[in-house]
Amino acid sequence: MAPFQLPAATRIGRVRLRVGDLERSLRFYRDLLGFHPVDPGLPPAPVLPRRVVGLGTRPDAPPLVLLEEVPGARPPGPRTTGLYHYALLFPDRRSLARAVVRLAEAGWPFEGFSDHLVSEAVYLRDPDGNGLELYADRPRSAWRYRGQEVEMATRPLDLEGLLRELEPEPPPEDGIPAGTVVGHVHLHVSDLGRAEAFYQGLLGLAVMNRTYPGALFLAAGGYHHHVAVNIWAGAGAPPPPPEAAGLVYFELVVPGEDAREALLRRLEGQGVAAELLPEGLLVRDPDGIGILIGGG
């Protein structure tokens, strides 16, 4: 019997982040990156116990990021499970280059610039220390494979070549371009084998690359990765404090009601409880990391 697989069109939807100061976060996400505040798609106040703001590419667009304010929340520290980074996938190199210039002109610190063969990426952190990757994919026709796994690496980014995309003149200053999506999430976990059993064996993502020591990259539909997991915070790392800044959940958009129901039956059959939230059904991986099962 063939192993369970998610539909090829499965993708990452929203990410919900806990932040310590909403206005501080908006100065980064709205004023610097160029997001627009949008309807978060949640019950209106005062039903919500906390302030939540949605961020989208346009005022009428669905949210890509939800910011949940917990006043005074602090980063969880480097040796816990949870978010390593989430990644905004730009529609092309030109828009990625414009975002890099905008951040550099504002003096925002970068943490890295990498060529991953399948993509070009820039790394930084938001004001709460949440890891953020900005990237653009190379065409799938340029990806190389070894068997069923896609070749990936971490090489220096040709930053000069990227910035040449802005010649002879940069695109207009219009913030995050339409077509930007959350491309993937990368998570710290406590046990790599247990994470593989959950994300591949139970959830139905395929392992796309296992060449990085202590990490796995998994996806649906042959993408290079929708979810990555690593034990770089240490095998057996504990969860973060409950009210720490960081990831509340990420959304896994599973198209087709039949596929979603099959997935939920599998999870329930293995004792993975689903919690009904206003925005959908929330399940948790073996480290307690929240995954919202969405439709689309």
Q: Could you give a quick summary of the protein structure above?
A:
With 296 residues, the chain is an alpha+beta fold. It has five helices and 19 strands.
Task: Describe the secondary structure blueprint for this structure.
Layout: E1 11-19, H1 22-29, E2 36-38, E3 52-56, E4 65-69, E5 82-89, H2 93-105, E6 112-115, E7 119-125, E8 131-137, E9 145-146, E10 149-150, E11 155-156, H3 159-163, E12 181-188, H4 192-202, E13 206-209, E14 215-219, E15 227-230, E16 246-253, H5 257-269, E17 275-277, E18 280-284, E19 290-294
Describe the structure in your own words.
The model has no long low-confidence stretch (mean pLDDT 94). The chain has one domain: Roll (2,3-Dihydroxybiphenyl 1,2-Dioxygenase, domain 1), CATH 3.10.180. The chain has 296 residues and is of the alpha+beta class. Helices cover 17% and strands 32% of the residues. The strands form 3 sheets. The protein has a 9-stranded mixed beta sheet. An 8-stranded mixed beta sheet has the order 2-3-4-1-16-19-18-17, with helices on one face.
